[in-house]
Amino acid sequence: MITEFRALSRLRQVQLCLVGAVSVALMALEGLNAPYLAVALAATMSGTLCLAALGVPQRLMVRCTVLATVVSGALTLVEAGMSRRPENTPGLIELCVLLWLVTRVVRRCSPLMAILLPAAPALAAVVLPLRIAERGENINGVIVLIAAGLVPFMAVLGLCLRLYDALRARRREAILQAQRLEHARELHDFVAHHVTAIVAQTKAARFTAAAGHTQSPEALDQMLAHIERAGSQALGSMRAMVSSLRDPSAPAATSPAGGLAGLRDLTREFSSVGPSAELTLDARLADRPLPPEITTAVHRVVQESLTNVRKHAAGAGRVRVRVTLRPGMPEELEVSVADDGRGGAPAARAEAVGAGTGGTWNGGGYGLVGLTERIERAGGRLTAGPGDGGGWHVLAVLPLDAP
After folding, report:
1. Mean pLDDT of 193-207
2. Cα 118–chain centre separation
3. Which 3 state secondary structure label does DSSP give 76?
4. How many angstroms separate the CA atoms of 295 and 259, rounded?
5. What's the CA gap between 165 and 171, in Å, rounded?
6. Most buried by CB count within 10 Å: which residue of 42, 44, 55, 298?
7. What are phi and psi of 360, to 5 degrees?
8. Which string of DSSP letters, residue by residue, matches 117-179?
9. Please, which pLDDT band fits residue 355 given cuts at 50, 70 and 90?
10. Is the dihedral of CA 267, 272, 275, 276 positive or negative?
11. What pairs with residue 333 in β-bridges?
């Protein structure tokens, strides 16, 4: 309990202390109406126990609620049998706390306990007016008001708060799931791109060695430099991802720098260790500000497509990357990546067929799955399949005014 209290903010601690101190003071003042000092002390202790049950951590709530209501009910029975009783108040602060206990139990306990346990503080609240000396219709009216009005109202309030908590937890889980998917997409887009370059370079070195060709020291050094650079970039991407996860206030490391102009560095890096990649960037987009989600989506389309060319496009010698405004529809952006690799739809790339058509994914990869999710979230659509002249063609259409 002390640990949970210390975990609260300083302002929250001060507020709880003030509320507790004022409540206990009011209970003590109400207890002074009792004709005997022992009864006054017992009334103060009973109210304090009820207040403590209202503020304890959830793991102690059931036991404290039972203890507090038993003490409160026992005191009510004792005072009801006394010849001299308080004339003014039976303990209004304790009554309010008992009613709030009904609400808290309904809100916080397990379903079974939320049905059974509220009966204890509800009963203690209903019989509490029996502590005062006055009898007759006035007391009966108060008991009926508590039993038929206040207790049901507090129980319904607890149900409403319980439903609100469930909806908030479900919404929070949905947000966390969306964040997990986003991080999974980012990790795949960044790391897989660089790791694929390392694998391609390593395969090239092994193929050359197996064929019996001796590489010059300069060529070998250049190949190792490419591998080193790709590995450093992969480590940098993972480090940036971990930093953003550990510190959500840090700027997102996964946002592409330089806008669409950064595509030139992406295609230039790809061409240095693979087929030649030619970039065509619409001049009308040079000075046009684009929403960050659109810019990021364009980068991911190009990056994932180039990664798949490097992994699956056997014999590809040329890749054409086009980012232009759609003809006749200047408010839509068209991103096209096409290669001239052999074969129409190799099994390893067949997973892309369902990307823009709502079909079933045939492959086990997650790159195009995540890419499709990203494009659809930006309000666009993605299609992928065999090109007209062979090879593979990925086409994404994005609205420039992202939803």
Report:
1. 73
2. 33
3. helix
4. 6
5. 10
6. 298
7. -90, 135
8. TTHHHHHHHHHGGGGSS--SHHHHHHHHHIIIIIHHHHHHHHHHHHHHHHHHHHHHHHHHHHH
9. very low
10. positive
11. 325, 398
Contact indicator for 253, 240 with CB cutoff of 8 Å: yes
Task: Quote the CA–CA distance of 114 and 105 in Å, as a whole number.
Answer: 6
User: Any idea which of 27-36, 328-337, 363-372, 376-385 has the lowest mean pLDDT?
Assistant: 363-372
For residue 35, what are its two tokens?
């004709």
Q: Could you count the other beta carbons within 10 Å of the beta carbon of residue 275?
A: 18
Distances (CA, A) of 116 to 62, 69, 380: 11, 14, 52
E strand or H helix at 80, and its extent? helix 58-80
Measured distance CA(243)–CA(235) in Å, rounded: 12
For the chain, helix, strand, coil in percent to 5 are: 65, 10, 25
Separation between Cα atoms, residue 236 and residue 280, nearest integer Å: 28
When mean pLDDT is compared over 157-171, 174-188, 280-294, the highest value belongs to 157-171
CA-nearest of 115, 72, 93, 88 to 21 is: 93
Q: Which of 194, 297, 300 has the alpha carbon at shortest distance from 237?
A: 194
Question: What are the Cα distances from residue 137, in Å, to 67, 82, 145, 151?
Answer: 31, 20, 12, 20
List of residues 6+ apart from 278 with CB closer than 8 A = 267, 318, 319, 320, 321
Do 334 and 325 contact (CB within 8 A), yes or no? Answer: yes
Mean pLDDT check: name the lowest of 144-153, 209-218, 279-288, 368-377. Answer: 209-218
Q: What mean pLDDT value characterizes the chain?
A: 79
Beta sheet of 381-386, edge-to-edge order: 276-281, 318-326, 329-339, 392-399, 381-386
Cα separation, 372 vs 63, in Å, equals 52
> Residue type at 358?
G
The phi, psi pair for 302, rounded to 5°, reads -65, -45
